[in-house]
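residues and backbone:
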Amino acid sequence: MVNNSRTHLFPPACDPQRPFLLPIKEKKNRPPIKG
């Protein structure tokens, strides 16, 4: 049961950096949206 929760929160072991870096790069490139 713990494994299921972990895989849901963390990216797959296949490519742990790809899905993690993609959102970070987008946030750094895009300016903070202030509404």
The chain has two helices and no strands. Helices lie at 2-9, 18-29. The CA atoms of residues 21 and 27 lie 10 Å apart.
